[in-house]
Amino acid sequence: MIGNYFTLRHIVTDLRRDLTGKTISEVFTQSRNELIVSSGEISLVVSCEPSANACYLRTRVSRPKRNSMDCFRRIHGAVIQSVHLQETDREIVIGIGNGAPLSLIIQLFGPKANVFLTEKRRVLDAFLQARAWKGRELDPPRKPRPAYAENEFAAAIQAIGQISAGGVLKSLYPLFGSLLVRECLVRADIAESTPVAGLTPDGIARLHREIKQLTGELHQHPSPRIYKDHRSLACFSIIGLQMMHDLDCEVFDSVHEGIRVFLGGTRRQRGFDRELSALRTTMETEMRRIERTLAVLSREVPGAERANAYELYGKLLLAFPRQPTPGVKRVRLENVFSPEKELVEIPLDPHLTATQNAQRYFDRARKARHALAESAERKADYHERYDRLKTLLDALGAVHTTEQWEEFKRSRTAELAAAGLLKKTTDPRKDLPPFRIFTVEGGFQVWAGKNSENNDLLTMRHAKPNDLWFHARGAGGSHVVLRAGTGKGEISKRAIEQTASIAAYYSKMKNSGLVPVAMTLRKYVRKPRGAPAGTVRLEREDVLMVPPRLPQGQES
Fold it and tell me: Which residues partner with 42 through β-bridges?
């Protein structure tokens, strides 16, 4: 109830005492939906957040040199003549004495909250949506409603019918708000959903007494407090609430201090909720994507069967004593390597000899076994990433407070970084990318992926269009990026060769003397739709023959 009518009554009493006669030094905003009216040592802060309407006094509000904006320049240097609260609404009127009957009107009307500079309720300027409001007349204040005597209260309730008790109180006592309506019903021991037609005369009388008692408490000297539920903020109140008796409570000497602490806490809580929800959604989406990819991989024809069949075709073609007739596209040969001696039908390339066809099948067998090994590696990478995400998601389920969230991020920094989920910070030392990092001639930085998933992260999310991209040609391995602009001057031929050698080193051909490495700009690298992790297509490329090695003195 930071923006409740009864809270505002006490706030306005303090505003009248502390601001009347003071000169407005400046009016500015430094946060979205928040206005600050400063009079030197003391400032009025107005929050127009739809879910957090409030105003309170603060001392020592220092305006930042950047990222702030002046508002209502016309009243800078003017004197505050009066402050009052409309009798029946959450509207504060601050009279400004600058030679004209100007008023600063603060309306805390939920999502319509705003601050207006007016002359006889005609809007001269507005804090929010100024263009739409200028020249318009504000609605006149509502007429006060007299307090209900007990018999009038009973008659009003009985005339309404089947509406719930909570709905009736909100209609009859609009200044209470939802929180105080629930408090009245709790004190009267009446469920909020109870139809008023079912209330007994005793229940109606009891409810009227509790309303009268609560209203009296609200007009007394406030006892501001914040109720906390499992270390998160439940609500702010200027009186003790029976409905919150089982929650922890922090009491403040000042309404203004209590509101300031509550607003700060709820803003942190909202930020925590957004971060937590976004992380959970990202993790769940990625896990579903991995499940789909693994399902596709499991439906592929086993590579071992293909490799064995190709190798058998090659052996049979070499074992056959007579060459097939030139131009033949298919031949049936007895499987001399099987006890059953079954016939095996072998497709042929009619333009090749039997020996050449045999060599072609041996090459296919080798490639199929290589693809099988890569597929097994991809599956292992997917399973490892899935298990890592599942562990993080399970741990995230135990995070309920901002303190637990901060501890979660601190204790699991490495895991979040490895999964590509670590939020960027402004300190590069705290935000090292999850790749192998090297430096080549000229001081240029080189990043190398660690696995298929990590390759995708490097190429598709971190590499920039004009970075140079490297990968061993015709073999599995790391994506490697030479980052343009990270060193001095132009990228040298030596730096390019060093980077290509890194790509050769982190490939299946690292034990070869020379390795062909494809090089292109990142902007010419495309990922086909639905392709497995780490799989890309190059629109153009140059090929370098380099030895597989790392820059001197830089370990893997």
Answer: 59
Residue ranges of domains in the chain: 5-133, 150-257, 303-392, 433-546
- Over residues 413-428, the pLDDT tens digits come to 777 876 777 654 444 4
Confidence of residue 300 (pLDDT cuts 50, 70, 90): low
pTM of the model: 0.58
In this structure, are residues 433 and 467 in contact, taking their beta carbons and an 8 Å threshold? no
Give the torsion sign (CA, 5, 9, 14, 19): positive
Please report, for the chain, how many H helices and E strands are present, in that order: 13, 23
Q: How many Å is the Cα radius of gyration of the chain?
A: 37
Residue 480 C-alpha from the chain's centroid:
29
Q: What is the pLDDT of residues 159-206, one digit of tens each?
A: 776 789 899 898 888 899 999 999 999 999 999 988 888 888 999 999
The CATH number for 5-133, chosen from 2.40.10.10, 3.90.79.10, 2.30.310.10, 3.30.300.160, is 2.30.310.10
CA pair distance 81, 103, nearest whole angstrom: 10
CA-based torsion, 195, 200, 205, 207: positive or negative:
negative
Sheet with 101-107, strands from edge to edge, namely: 79-85, 91-97, 101-107, 114-119, 122-126
End-to-end CA distance of the chain: 59
- Nearest to residue 184, comparing CAs of 159, 158, 161, 157? 157
Q: 199 by DSSP, 3-state: which?
A: coil
The answer, yes or no, to whether residue 301 has pLDDT greater than 60, is no
Placement of tokens 């269009």 in the chain: 465
Q: Beta strands of 459-513 (E only): which ranges?
A: 468-472, 480-482
Q: Bigger pLDDT: 245 or 323?
A: 245
Q: What is the pLDDT of residues 425-460, one digit of tens each?
A: 444 444 567 899 999 998 899 999 999 989 999 999
**CATH class for the region spanning 150-257:** mainly alpha
